[in-house]
């Protein structure tokens, strides 16, 4: 099963919006979502502090900041062999 990771932090409206957008895609595709708080890992905090939310699918950073549902959808489609 495809895993989508969302790098996030607490009290982040952009992160909450991104997670909600991704959750809506579950109607079309089967995947799991894992939310990782960057403040629980110093390396992640250093890497992503100005970028969150960051969406990663199968090890590939797909989008960050204002998450584009189209970018996430396009990556899920390519993962499932769709065009």
Topology summary:
Layout: E1 2-8, H1 13-24, E2 31-37, H2 42-48, E3 54-57, E4 60-64, H3 69-79
Parallel strand pairs: 1-2
Antiparallel strand pairs: 1-3, 3-4
Organism: Halalkalibacter hemicellulosilyticusJCM 9152
Protein name: Glutaredoxin family protein
InterPro entries: Glutaredoxin-like, Glutaredoxin-like_YDR286C, Thioredoxin-like_sf
Record keyword descriptors for this entry.
83 residues, alpha+beta, Glutaredoxin, 4-stranded mixed sheet, 4 strands, 36% helix, globular
Radius of gyration, in angstroms, nearest whole number: 12 Å
Name the poorly predicted regions.
none
CATH H-level superfamily title: Glutaredoxin
Morphology call = globular
Structural class: alpha+beta
Compute the number of structural domains. 1
Give the DSSP E fraction (strand runs of 2 or more residues): 25-35%
Assigned CATH class: Alpha Beta
- What is the total tally of β strands? 4
- Residues in helices, as a percent range: 25-40%
Describe this structure in words.
The structure is a single chain. With 83 residues, this protein is α+β, with helices and mostly antiparallel strands. The chain has a single domain (2-79), classed as Glutaredoxin (3-Layer(aba) Sandwich). It is 36% helix and 28% strand. It contains 3 helices and 4 strands; from the N terminus they run βαβαββα. It has a 4-stranded mixed β-sheet with strand order 2-1-3-4, with helices on one face. Strand 3 and strand 4 form a beta hairpin. The longest helix has 12 residues, at 13-24. The two termini are 19 Å apart. The relative contact order is 0.24. The model has no long low-confidence stretch (mean pLDDT 94). Pfam families: Glrx-like. This is Glutaredoxin family protein.
